[in-house]
Design goal:
By secondary structure, the chain is α/β, with parallel strands linked by helices. The protein has 2 domains: 216 residues, 3-Layer(aba) Sandwich (Rossmann fold); 115 residues, Rossmann fold, CATH 3.40.50.40. Helix content is 31%, strand content 22%. Strands 1-5-2-6-7-8-9-12-13 form a 9-stranded mixed β-sheet, sandwiched between helices. It has a 4-stranded parallel β-sheet with strand order 14-15-16-17, sandwiched between helices. It starts with a helix and ends with a helix.
């Protein structure tokens, strides 16, 4: 049993923070784009024995993309090769630092992050609020594996490189770009489990569209937040509310050492009376509570005055995340608390922006 455990740990270490890099392309007159590969469906292939998808050589995959060296000189960096369901804030911390370090090179126009789609929106948002660079950073990936007869990954990477090189794509911060559509890292959400048109920005709208190597700008990025990056991230959990929610589950999260909890509440920011009591208990223990909603669009505001309604929660000291939803509100609270601690007033201001 000990031998198996050792081999597993060794495998994980070999697949995370490898930082192998390859320079690809021979035209020095073209812009240089850094491509960070982290893994995901985009480079996975079917195992002929099991029929299941497994990680493959992602650097060689990028080298096979037709005509990609006609638009840019590439510096390919294998940061990791894991499925994005295995991603963590600590890994994104390392990725953020690595991207900033590489983009200090004046010769590099920007970066493409090849990432699995399961947690892509979270990872993109993490980098969006922690990167120091103002150069374009584009997350992309695939919904179909490299061994699929009709993979979408090669075209997505090609378009992401086009975006980095385009003057029409400046000042957007980090974006998520797949299937020709460009999304803000702050607003993007995954809405489909298998379809190549898997991401949208909802009521905020797409930032742009890519066609024939050209970026067509649709919207500007209005709101951006930047924070210092700290390795000591607080423990922040995410709880989803539902009809008849059991208070014991939320109480367990409180008692297990959570420093902050994001609650995806009902409607515009409401919970049942029993959850209200646990929230009151959590706040007395010094846990920061942020309320968002299970509803994907619209603002979250303290409107209702019955026990568990938004107004009663606000009086307890709950913070309302007016527009940032659950998974990203968790990331934002984690990063914000590492910068301003448990200052309720400062944290509340951070969560007010659309």
């Amino acid at each position: 049993m000990k031998k198996v455990f050792f081999i597993t740990i060794l495998f994980l270490k070999l697949n995370i923070f490898a930082n192998e890099h390859v320079v690809y392309g021979s035209n020095p007159d073209l812009p240089t784009v850094a491509i960070f590969t982290t893994g995901g469906t985009i480079s996975e292939k079917k195992d002929p024995k099991t029929g299941l998808l497994v990680p493959a050589d992602i650097i060689n995959f990028i080298k096979t993309i037709p005509n990609i060296t006609d638009i840019a000189h590439l510096k390919i960096i294998q940061f990791s090769n894991i499925d994005s369901s295995q991603m963590t804030p600590n890994i994104w911390f390392e990725l953020s630092q690595s991207v900033d370090k590489v983009l200090k090179d004046r010769k590099i126009a920007g970066a493409v992050i090849v990432h699995g789609t399961d947690t892509m929106s979270e990872g993109a948002f993490f980098l969006d609020i922690t990167l120091k660079t103002d150069k374009p950073v584009v997350f992309t990936g695939a919904m179909r594996a490299a061994s699929d007869p009709y993979p979408d990954g090669p075209f997505n990477v090609y378009n992401a490189v086009c975006q980095v090189c385009s003057k029409n794509a400046l000042n957007w911060g980090v974006t998520v770009t797949l299937n020709q559509y460009i999304n803000s890292a702050r607003d993007v959400e995954k809405i489909n489990t298998t379809n190549p048109q898997a991401f949208t920005s909802g009521e905020k709208g797409y930032l742009g569209y890519i066609f024939n190597n050209k970026v067509f700008r649709i919207n500007n990025r209005l709101y951006r937040q930047k924070f210092s990056l700290s390795k000591n991230l607080p423990k922040v959990d995410l709880y989803t509310d539902y009809s008849g929610a059991r208070p014991e589950i939320l109480r367990y999260i409180v008692d297990s050492g959570a420093e902050g909890i994001v609650i995806e509440s009902l409607g515009s920011g409401n919970v049942n009376a029993e959850l209200y009591d646990v929230i009151q208990y959590a706040i007395k223990k010094g846990v920061i509570i942020v309320i968002t909603s299970i509803v994907p669009q619209g603002g979250v505001f303290p409107i209702y005055g019955t026990k568990g309604g938004g107004q009663t929660l606000e009086k307890l000291g709950v913070i309302f995340s007016n527009f940032v939803r659950g998974d990203k509100a968790r990331i934002l609270l984690m990063i914000a608390m590492s910068n301003v601690g448990k200052d309720i007033e400062k944290l509340s201001d951070i969560f007010k922006n659309p």
